[in-house]
Design goal:
Layout (H helix, E strand, L loop, with lengths): L6 E4 L4 H10 L6 E6 L2 E4 L6 H14 L21
Parallel strand pairs: 1-2
Antiparallel strand pairs: 2-3
Length: 83
């Protein structure tokens, strides 16, 4: 993967993909772009390097589709717990 210098274009409207691509764009060689309507956004320019580094952990904690709840702190099943 070190020798790859092509341009990769992601076409997604999912905010998770935007957050992940901002991080990944700084981890790989080549250009990672997002298609947004009729424009292209350079993923590396979406965030500063410092903010991109914390994007994945912050996104997982606060809003990732992959995280439905903290372990042991999920929603209660109907009829369970105090009424």
């Amino acid at each position: 993967m070190d020798n790859v210098s092509d341009i990769v274009v992601l076409d997604s409207e999912d905010t998770d993909v935007y957050a992940q691509s901002a991080y990944v764009s700084r981890q790989v060689c080549g250009d990672l772009m997002m298609k947004h309507k009729n424009n292209y956004i350079d993923c590396c320019s979406m965030l500063t390097e410092n903010v991109a580094e914390i994007t994945i952990p912050l996104h997982v904690i606060s809003g990732s589709d992959h995280t439905s709840s903290f372990y042991g702190r999920g929603e209660k099943v109907a009829g369970e717990g105090d009424l």
